[in-house]
Amino acid sequence: MLYKESGQFVTTYRFDKRFFRLKQERLAFALLLAFAFLVVPSIGNDYWFSAILIPFLVLSLAGLGLNLLTGYAGQLSLGSAAFMAVGAFATYNFNLRIEGLPLIISLILGGLTAGGVGLVFGLPSLRIKGFYLIVSTLAAQFFVQWVFTNFTWFSNNSSSGVITAPPLHVFGSDFNSPVGRYLLTLTVVVALGLLAKTIVSGELGRKWMAVRDMDTAAAVIGISVPKTKLLAFAISSFYLGIAGALWAFTYLGTVEPHGFDLTRSFQILFIIIIGGMGSILGNFLGAAFIVLFPILLSNLSSGLFAGAIDPGQLENFQKMIFGALIIFFLIKEPNGLAKVWQTVKQRLRVWPLRF
Amino acid sequence: MKFLGKHRWLLLALGLGIASVTAQVQAANEQYFPLQSYRIGPYAAGGSGFFGGFIDYLQYVNAKEGGVNGVKFTWSECETEYVVEKGVECYERLKKGLNGAPAAATNPLSVGIAYATLERSTADKLPLITINHGRTDSTDGSVFPYAFPLQLNPYSEVSAIVNYIATQSGGLDKLKGKKIVTLYHGSPYGKETSPILELLAKKYGFELTLLEVPHPGNEQQSQWLTIRRIKPDWVILRGWGVMNPVALKTAQKTGFPANHIIGNIWSNSEDDAAPAGSAAKGFISITTHPSGTSFPVLQGINQYVIKAGKGNLQDPKRFGNVYYNLGVVNGILNVEAVRVAQAKFGKRPLTGEEVRWGFENLKLDDKRLTELGALGLVQPLKLSCADHEGGGAVRFQQWDGSKWNVISEWVQADRQLLRPIIEKSSHEYAKEKGITPRDCSKETVAAK
Amino acid sequence: MTNATQLLRLDGISLSFKGVKAITDISFSVKKGEICALIGPNGAGKSSLLNVINGVYQADEGQIVYKGNARKNMHPQWAARRGVARTFQNIALFKGMSVLDNVLTGTNLKVKSSWIEQVFNVGRAPADAPQQRQKAEQVIAFLKLQPWRNSIVGNLPYGLQKRVELARALAAEPELLLLDEPMAGMNAEEKAEMSRFIVETRQEFGTTIVLIEHDIGVVMSLSDHVVVLDYGKKIGDGTPDEVRVNPEVLAAYLGTKH
Amino acid sequence: MNFFLEVFTGGLLAGVMYSLVAIGFVLIYKASGVFNFAQGSMVLFAALTFVSLVERGIPFWGAFAITLITMAVLAWLIEVLVLRQLVNRSPITLFMATLGLSYIVEGLAQAVWGAQVHALDIGINDEPYEVFGILLSQFDLFAAGIAGGLVALLGFLFNKTRIGISLRAVADDQLAALAVGIKLQRLWLIVWAVAGFVGLVAGILWGARVGVQFSLSLIVLKALPVLIIGGFTSIEGAIVGGLIVGASEKLAEVFIGPLIGGGIENWFPYVLAMLFLLVRPYGLFGDKAIERV
Predict the structure, then answer these.
(1) Per DSSP, which regions of D138-266 are E strands?
(2) B354 half-sphere exposure, CB direction, 13 A CA radius
(3) How many CA atoms does the CB half-sphere of B364 hold within 13 Å?
(4) From the candidates A129, A145, A146, which should be mutated to test the interface with D, based on the most D CB atoms within 10 A?
(5) Distance between CA atoms of residues C223 and A266, nearest Å
(6) Strand B404-406 vs strand C61-66: parallel, antiparallel, or unpaired?
(7) Is B30-152+291-382+414-442 CATH 3.40.50.2300?
(8) Whether A220 and C86 lie within 8 Å, measured CB to CB
(9) Digits of tens for pLDDT over chain D (293 positions)?
(10) What is the side-by-side order of every strand in the sheet holding C20-31?
(11) Where in chain B are the domains?
(12) If residue D228 lies in a helix (H) or strand (E), which one and from where to where?
């Protein structure tokens, strides 16, 4: 009986509101954090930090941002990358143009700017419903990219339009090494992840889900649907903005507007479809999948069937497998990997008993 | 595994993946090239040609000479799909070498990937070769010790084009009053040369109009109607991918003659012209690597590699085309750099740092190019600590409806004019990043 | 003719969809604390009328007087803020949420703190949460929903969903409760239970109730006041006994042409 | 003024090309209620298959027929493997499924035919052609003619034949259509196959216009605002929407573009569509749905 629920009753409201209701879960989460903060830095290498862990964390955060909007508040968006771009370029400019502004403050300001832009492009959602809304988010996608390409002021008139990360110093510590960048990213992601968990399990989260499940009924019980939707856009874009800034600063170290194109928006949408809509954990599972799957596949082909598959063909197959997985999940498991994980836990609970 | 039920497949996949990262084999006397190649996606045509040519040249050197001084070349590919983060992953995965063979240099053939791996390359002491592209100011090797925009940077590119237009018009002084339109791809790459063009326009007195085509460039009606109204003498096409054939088709539609359109370095392949069909006939473009199979080195590759059935190209018809030959040129430059470095450091597999020395002391004159069988294919080149570009010359070619024909000798860019602009930019970069430029006068020179 | 005991009055309400009249010139009033039933054959316009009352539909003509305020058009949120709650014919629950969360959303108007206060648990938030929670638990206990507190409502059987929807409405502590066929699809036992909940609701909270119901037996035993609609027109209005003998009503129900 | 007219007519003709793609969406939307994002990849797939067959020496009509059969088989697979599994799911879910579908179709097209760029010559020499001093493109006129013919054909198919009547019944009310004995799955298959046919025609014309290559699938992004403006359910709407988008984006690029930096064609149609939506949330020709509660 690894996973036992009995004997742990919910007695008070405070208890109910905690992140994890079971002692095992709290313990597991604490162990996971300890592992990520203390053990990983000493056992990881450059490749793991730069090519796997950092992108995994940043994409999880981006997925989280979109999930708040789409998974919780039910507003489909194809413009996630645009808000990431706003976050990245805004952070860059705050950092560049305000002398002595601490990096973390630039980051938060960048996120807030993205949130503001998200709010503006969320305005049509007050009148447009369902997937007609993708027009507004696609407008954001193309417009934002155009602005950053066309107005070179945003990239400090660099001839190539590429922005590069400033040295990463936070509270006097140097975070420029791969480990440092990993720890910085991890801290931001964990903090924002816990914040998101609080939001969705509270009143605002309930309002989002109410609007998602049935907006007419939500209005009838007195929820302000416009305000709820706009908050979803703003907060989601804030998260995406921070993710964009991390993408540019701690992951790649450089970014051009094209790096936040429609493909990126799709990628983030896929994270939440595969990971699970309306789940915080799902974003991490989905991002892990999207980062690891191509690497596994290419390792598989070069390791097991060395040379049997042309690398180009492999990528085609990968694309097809991705597409097929999206459809598979939509058909068989609309709640994504998060649900799969729950099922596994459910079985752990009764294991080794048969049922 | 009972409790996993229907999700067993997940574990299985995971297990297979882990098992595939197999143990390393004992090192051989080999020099390794990590290849961040791209063979699918929107730019696949360029990637498969370039990396095909590069690989075939390495095979050729291995087969003909047994490598360089007995050190054979080895390589492995990692598909980037031209996507930056995939390129970074590939870089991080491959930079350590293969089975003990050290990596010599990376050649991503992608501006985005080059930018994203620039600082990593410097930190890892691994040369980053961006032949004909990359960051213009990385020409200044004192600030960018590990980046090499070999042969031609974007600034030289436009300067050479303007010089060519001048010779067609009868001299630089005849440029005055000419109308030139530059049609550029709506991306940082497309806009990069705009300030230089404006500078040249002011200097020589020609009328310049800059027109942007939004990515990807499927629709250019409005731009070409505007061109039709301006009636320029020349149109410089700074295109990318599908934008090129569409430009040529739309030019035909609006009655602008193709033989007054000059394509830049990313508008110069068969894949840029051929899809436009008859509309491309007469189209002129620059090249640093003329197409064709008559060069002795190409004949050699044909004999040792292609005929042996080891050619990398899926479609043998593409042998000798523009991208393939760029790959061959890139192969020649990389291998020669290794050769130069071996002369100094010994006949063994070299580290990235040692190969960099080779690049900085690379000197290809007509004599050496003749020995390599690459006279006319590769421009004479001399690199140094301060100058990581080296050449700055292009030849012009014209599309006859089915292939490119070279129509000029090497035309030089005005590199003296550009150097101060480049240094200004590189010094700004150095300041922003806190880099102290190297003192190039103190670098050791090749012992010849 | 406003009087103190009158909570709601409809004056000459008309509504049409794409030119087809759904409701024609309907007026009636509801007294504070009464249970008023809207009856009539299918398509008589009952649900539409309910939708007009709390602003889900906008009437073409007429006005609604609620608590002395006359309005041409209601707005759902305006109505909710002034104590109107309702259930729907086809159940409009938030299917992806648990019973508890559904009921908690019903209390949303009682929350004073902003979302930022809630997230950081500062300001007014620490006081709000237990209060909200207490109300929800009270309603859940009242409607005997404890066993399903944490179940996702989409997975519950129909009859229970109807009860959860009532719970969500009650959690708002409404003054006027609109129930659209609260007993549709229920067996006799469930109907009896639901009737009891409705009656107890009025007893306990003094809520005024307007409901739509097809089961005439239930209507007659439950309500103080019956309004009969047919083809979008009002054909009867009075106590159950009065309506029972109204010839026009009888004709409509027996299917006689009129 | 001449220049204005030139840009305007050029834009209208380009708009017809957008409409051509948009019609495929309308067909599928009417039958299955799906906004089929994969339509762009299907256009790519059709064009790539067609051009590859022609390059292998198969005559035009032979290649056309083979491609058409391939598209029908593809349509059948999509129907059986995807749509049938997703009956009664929300439009957003269906949309995301077609997004996944577009990845599969694109991957498949490139896995089978490679990633090279192909030229496609359908024998029209696109020399400029002037009428009253206004430039017209022969190719675009030809394409407009084909589009007109296609619309007439579809009009006949959907107004005069049994299939068309069934289709309208399905679009109105799926359950009722089932009740009167319409074989929904067969109908879906037919409509998807017809959409494949439209995709093939669009693919050939677009392929001849810009070359057959990967970015052909991106024209879906041009078709989307067309649909929003015209409404998802109307072929006439798709035509009018295409004309509006084509003409307005060209005029905007030429006359507004220079003032704000140019290259605005990518986002302009979306902003335009957004404004349309704010005024008419269901498009010019779309049906306004009443929300039943």
Answers:
(1) none
(2) 18
(3) 28
(4) A146
(5) 56
(6) unpaired
(7) yes
(8) yes
(9) 688 988 999 899 989 989 988 998 888 888 777 888 888 899 999 999 999 999 999 999 999 999 999 998 998 888 888 888 887 788 888 888 999 999 999 889 888 887 777 888 887 777 777 777 788 888 888 999 998 899 888 888 877 888 778 877 777 776 777 777 777 777 877 888 888 899 999 999 988 888 888 778 888 888 889 988 888 888 888 999 999 999 999 999 999 888 888 888 889 999 999 888 888 777 677 665 555 55
(10) C20-31, C6-17, C61-66, C69-71
(11) 30-152+291-382+414-442, 155-287
(12) helix D220-230
Q: Is B169 left (phi over 0), alpha (psi -120 to 50) or beta?
A: alpha
Q: Which residues of D9-32 are buried (b: 16+ CB within 10 A; e: fewer)?
A: bbbbbbbbbbbbbbbbbbbbbbbb
Domains B30-152+291-382+414-442 and B155-287 share a fold: yes
What are the two backbone dihedrals, phi and then psi, of residue C91, each rounded to the nearest 5 degrees?
A: 55, 110
Enumerate neighbours of C (3 or more CB pairs within 8 A). A, D
Of B307, B309, B286, the residue nearest B395 (C-alpha): B286
Cα D54 to chain centroid, rounded: 23
d(CA D49, CA C54) in angstroms, rounded, equals 58
Q: What residues have CB less than 8 Å from B238, skipping those under 6 apart? A: B182, B183, B184, B185, B190, B193, B264, B266, B267
Q: Two tokens at B395?
A: 């030849």
Superfamily of domain B155-287: Response regulator (3.40.50.2300)
B42/D213 touch (CB, cutoff 8 Å), yes or no: yes
A34 within some domain = no
Which strands, in side-by-side order, build the sheet including C35-39?
C84-86, C176-180, C208-212, C35-39, C225-230, C233-238
Cβ-nearest to A221 among C108, C115, C128 = C108
d(CA B376, CA A341): 62
Q: Chain A, 214-273: which have a CB under 8 Å from a chain B CB?
A: 251-259, 263
What angle do the packed helices A262-275 and A311-332 form, to 10 degrees? 50
Nearest-CA neighbor of A255 among A43, A138, A52, A87? A87
ipTM of this predicted structure = 0.89
Q: Which residues pair with C23 in a beta bridge?
A: C15
Q: Which two tokens stand for residue A335?
A: 């709640």
For residue D199, the SS3 value is helix
Cβ proximity of C38 and C58 under 8 Å: no
Estimate the crossing angle of helix A103-122 against helix A80-97, to 10 degrees: 140
> Would residue A12 count as lying in a domain?
no
Instruction: Return d(Cα C50, Cα C37) in angstroms, integer.
Output: 11
CA distance D265 to chain B (A): 7
In a domain, A174, yes or no: yes
Shortest distance between the Cα of C100 and any Cα of chain A, in A, equals 11
Residue type, B316: P
Q: In chain A, how many domains are there?
A: 1
Alpha carbon distance B245, B227 (integer Å): 17
In a domain, A32, yes or no: no
Q: Which fold has domain C1-83+174-258?
A: Rossmann fold (3.40.50)
| Helix H or strand E encompassing A18 | none
Residue D3 falls in which region: left (phi positive, over 0), alpha (psi -120 to 50) or beta: alpha
Residue-wise DSSP of A296-316: HHHHHHHHTTTTTS-HHHHHH
B229 interface with D at CB cutoff 8 Å: yes
Closest CA to B310 of B100, B42, B131, B61: B61
Helices A54-66, A262-275: axis angle to 10 degrees equals 80
Count of CB pairs separated by less than 8 Å, A with C? 90
Q: Which amino acid is at D3?
A: F
